[in-house]
Specification:
mainly alpha; 70% helix; globular
Length: 361
């Protein structure tokens, strides 16, 4: 428990430094965009290559990993049913609500938390693969079907994950591991030194960028003005420059509008507003409470306990990824819900991790 608290204290201190740098105007308000791009295109892929190339893959592909994957899939599917069938939201909004309830920030926060709390960034790799190769294409397929049926650019949209450097970092590191390649013996060891150097700066840069983005984050639950419904606030942690989110934006193209589906008659503006607030609180509660609870239930059933169970629970407690806001913006569905879910779950995940560590560590 003390190790977890110490790790999160370091985590918080570096975030606070990033926040202060922006608030004191030592750096520009949009400096987090530069840092997140450096992490996304260089530092984090390098960290994944070096970590996975020497990781024990039998430990990475373990029961603990299977529990984390099962908890995420269960949380997203069950949340979709609630958003669609209970709250009666249109399909596109229910899809965004479901992702806000279970799609975790595996890169920006997952890797630093895995390093500081669990001691190994390799444990997050299967979740990255699940989200990049399964959840992202499935999401695009559903949203395309609702918003722009028959669009000829669908192939380009579905292949966005293949242009994600995080994916190729996982693939390269795993291939080196399976092939028995010692990176320190390849090319005289100089490429390995470069990768190690880049990888070492990934975690602190992510934390600084998060602190900088929080310095300019909007207040959640506010009603957006009419002219800001299609934009993200500069410096927000859900801004386009977010590391995972930027991968989505590389697909290009116009942002289509949602074709609202008729759901049990016409609803008033106040009813729609109440429904969206309910959707937000459902997503936040599902992400911070239900999904970690699912990890505990599934993990216990799988025979995990203690530190083995802590890993999937911590992964499940990670906040909603910035990707969800980018998906919402791209398809014009539930943007305010996605934005506020990212902010609220980012603010609330630390107490959940501390509670899990106190009970399981």
């Amino acid at each position: 428990m003390a190790d977890v608290v110490a790790g999160l204290a370091v985590f918080g201190a570096v975030i606070a430094v990033g926040w202060l740098l922006v608030r004191t105007r030592a750096v520009p308000a949009d400096a987090d965009g530069v840092l997140t791009r450096v992490c996304f295109f260089a530092a984090t892929p390098a960290l994944l290559v070096t970590t996975l190339s020497r990781a024990d893959l039998t430990a990475v592909l373990s029961r603990s990993t299977a529990v984390a994957v099962a908890a995420e899939l269960t949380a997203i599917v069950s949340a979709w049913c609630l958003h669609r069938l209970v709250l009666r939201r249109p399909t596109a909004e229910a899809t965004i609500g479901a992702l806000a309830s279970g799609y975790v920030n595996a890169a920006n926060l997952g890797i630093p938390v895995a390093v500081l709390v669990l001691g190994d960034a390799a444990t997050i790799a299967p979740i990255l693969l699940l989200q990049l190769l399964v959840l992202t294409p499935a999401t695009f397929t559903v949203l395309d079907a609702v918003t722009r049926r028959g669009n000829p650019s669908r192939l380009a949209t579905l292949t966005v994950p293949l242009r994600n450097p995080l994916l190729w970092g996982v693939v390269a590191g795993t291939a080196a591991n399976l092939g028995g390649v010692d990176l320190k013996e390849w090319g005289g060891g100089y490429p390995a030194q470069g990768l190690e150097m880049l990888g070492r700066v990934a975690v602190p840069l992510m934390m600084l960028a998060l602190g900088m983005s929080l310095a300019g984050a909007p207040r959640p639950l506010r009603n957006p003005a009419p002219d800001e419904t299609g934009t993200s606030p500069q410096g927000s942690p859900v801004a386009e420059a977010g590391s995972e989110a930027h991968a989505v934006d590389t697909a290009g193209g116009r942002l289509p509008r949602v074709e609202e589906e008729p759901v049990h008659g016409v609803r008033s503006t106040s009813q729609r507003g109440a429904g969206r607030r309910s959707g937000l609180w459902l997503a936040v509660g599902w992400k911070l409470a239900v999904m970690p609870g699912l990890a505990v239930v599934v993990g216990t059933a799988a025979g995990l306990s203690g530190a083995q169970l802590l890993a999937p629970v911590v992964t499940a407690a990670l906040p909603t990824a910035q990707n969800v806001f980018m998906y919402a913006s791209r398809y014009g569905a539930a943007k305010d819900l996605a934005r506020d879910a990212v902010l609220l779950t980012t603010a609330g995940f630390v107490p959940v991790v501390l509670l899990a560590a106190a009970l399981l560590h």
